[in-house]
From TrEMBL:
It comes from the Bacteria. The lineage of its organism: Bacteria, Pseudomonadati, Pseudomonadota, Gammaproteobacteria, Pseudomonadales. One of its GO terms (cellular component) is cytosol. Transmembrane segments: none annotated. It comes from Pseudomonas eucalypticola. This is YecA family protein. Belongs to the UPF0149 family.
Length: 183
């Protein structure tokens, strides 16, 4: 009987096999942060930013996975949905592992956003989201497994599935061209 790996674990195994000391969560956060700040969806630009975290030149299989991840994120950000799927360990992983990955995701997001935000003036709400992400990125591994801790984790995760959309809408989403009206 074969055990099905989660997408997170499959990507983690791919990165580890390539000698890349970065978590899938951090890379996904980096990608989403840069995209929400206004970086275009050019694969080479994304691969250049990802290379900063990978430490070594990625093999073709890692490059292909990174490009696939970018295509998924582009679809989420430009589609009609209002939530993001965050690349994290499966729900049956220990809470400390999931919370650590959530903190790494936030660190990656802040790095990617910082690389591409270019000193934009952000709304108060956008600034608060970035401050929240900074606080979440400081999460400690000493979480106790409990129903309250699990509930708190789920609330934070749900918040982070929606918050990037506000940043993307404010900083990166192209404004729809309006037709001039004839008077």
């Amino acid at each position: 009987m074969s055990i099905q790996k989660s997408p997170y674990q499959g990507f983690a195994d791919l990165l580890n096999a390539g000698g890349h000391p970065v978590s899938p969560a951090e890379l996904h956060g980096l990608l989403l942060g840069r995209s929400c700040a206004g970086a275009d969806f050019d694969a080479e630009g994304w691969l250049a930013d990802a290379a900063l975290s990978l430490d070594t030149e990625p093999a073709d299989n890692v490059r292909n996975a990174l490009v696939g991840l970018q295509q998924m994120v582009q679809g989420e950000l430009t589609g009609d949905d209002v939530t993001i799927v965050i690349l994290l360990p499966a729900d049956d992983a220990p809470l400390t592992e999931r919370a650590t990955a959530l903190g790494q995701w936030c660190q990656g997001f802040l790095t990617g956003f910082g690389l591409h935000s270019g000193g934009k003036n952000l709304s108060q709400e956008a600034q608060e989201i970035l401050q929240d992400m900074d606080a979440i990125s400081q999460v400690q591994e000493a979480l106790e497994e409990s129903e309250d801790a699990e509930s708190d984790y789920m609330e934070v995760m749900e918040y982070l599935r929606v918050a990037p959309m506000l940043l993307f809408t404010e900083c990166a989403k192209p404004v729809a061209a309006t037709k001039p009206s004839l008077h």
